[in-house]
Design a protein that fits this description.
By secondary structure, the protein is of the alpha/beta class. The protein folds into 2 domains: 3-112, 3-Layer(aba) Sandwich (Rossmann fold); 115-251, 3-Layer(aba) Sandwich (Rossmann fold). The protein is 37% helix and 22% strand. The chain has 10 helices and 12 strands. It has a 6-stranded mixed β-sheet, with helices on both faces. It has a 6-stranded parallel β-sheet with strand order 9-8-7-10-11-12. The chain is globular, with a radius of gyration of 19 Å. The relative contact order is 0.13. It binds 2'-monophosphoadenosine-5'-diphosphate. 2'-monophosphoadenosine-5'-diphosphate binds at residues 139-143, 163-165, 168, 203-205, 210, 212-213.
Length: 289
């Protein structure tokens, strides 16, 4: 059944988009999409909507029946968004989660732009080389699941996932097993003494500015360290990386803007420029600190 067939009148004004999540108050998505729309001269509405857990599916379907043009989906609904869609991209399927829903002729399409956003930020914005690098990913939750496929597509030489609960890292490594890149999952201490070129913190520890359990690793001469979360001040993981003389250290603000730009492109076929949006958000973040 296509989303247009599901009955109910299209009564939303103009081109309406939204992000659904719970909680949603601190979402920067409306600000980011407003900036994209201004830049491209598009007239659109983008709202942040807090959705109750028992009403997620009905609220999504109702939004598209009423003429909604696209949704971003955030915590805790990304898995349910993926399950609800009629078609699912390979990135969303492998992640088992979607952060972007697009109404199409064939029905509701689910995409995961988080990993694309991360890779775009690291490669295009920060100029980091990914191909051939030895990569360590810390954490094995939803955030990590969303980034692994695009990271593997960049042809890192080897990908090691470590997690406090080692069994989850092992499970992920099996799920992302592929013929081109060696993927291994283990406990943090299992990689003690090893050297990495790229270290990504995908744990939720940074949300409370904690340092996750980290292995005693060596950073190569041009090692880059990325924290998927962002904050006004360097996170505990970023400070740990800088103290070990990482060649480059970044937080996830650029990834946030890039995943939004990918969503915008999927919905509207136009790719907004992101550099000015990232620097404006960074300035606002610093001013609010
Ligand atoms: P998200 O969707 O943000 O990834 P999640 O699925 O709950 O959230 O996953 C959180 C990840 O951060 C997990 O890998 C978790 O480790 P466990 O699987 O062992 O729970 C990790 N994590 C959270 N707090 C941590 C901490 N203080 N130290 C180490 N790892 C932590």
């Amino acid at each position: 059944m296509t989303v247009q067939d599901r009955g109910q009148q299209a009564d939303l004004p103009g081109d309406t988009y939204a992000v659904f999540g719970n909680p949603i108050k601190h979402s920067k998505s409306p600000q980011i999409h407003k900036a994209f729309a201004q830049q491209l001269g598009d007239a659109l509405t983008y709202r942040a909507v807090r959705v109750e857990s028992d009403a997620f599916e009905s609220t999504v379907l109702g939004f598209f029946q009423r003429g909604g043009r696209g949704l971003n989906i955030t915590v805790p609904f990304k898995e349910r968004a993926c399950a609800l869609a009629d078609t699912v991209s390979s990135a969303a399927e492998q992640a088992g989660a979607a952060n972007c829903l697009v109404p199409r002729e064939a029905g509701l399409h689910a995409e995961n732009t988080d990993g694309l956003g991360l890779v775009k930020d690291m490669a295009a914005n920060l100029g980091w080389q990914l191909q051939g690098r030895r990569a360590l990913v810390i954490g094995a939750g939803g955030a990590v699941r969303g980034i692994l496929q695009p990271l593997l597509q960049e042809r890192v030489a080897e990908l090691i996932i470590v997690n406090r609960t080692a069994s989850r890292a092992l499970e992920l490594a099996q799920r992302f097993d592929n013929p081109s890149t060696a993927v291994r999952g283990c406990a943090p201490a299992d990689v003690d003494g090893e050297t990495f070129d790229l270290v990504i913190n995908g744990t939720s520890a940074s949300l409370s500015d904690d340092l996750p359990e980290l292995p005693d690793i060596k950073l190569s001469a041009r090692c880059c360290c990325y924290d998927l979360v962002y904050a006004a001040a360097p996170t505990a993981f970023m400070q740990w990386s800088a103290a070990r003389a990482a060649w480059a250290v970044a937080d996830g603000l650029g990834m946030l803007v890039e995943q939004a730009a990918e969503s915008y492109y999927l919905w509207r076929g136009q790719r907004p420029a992101t550099d000015g949006v990232i620097s404006d958000l960074r300035a606002a973040l610093l001013a609010s600190a």
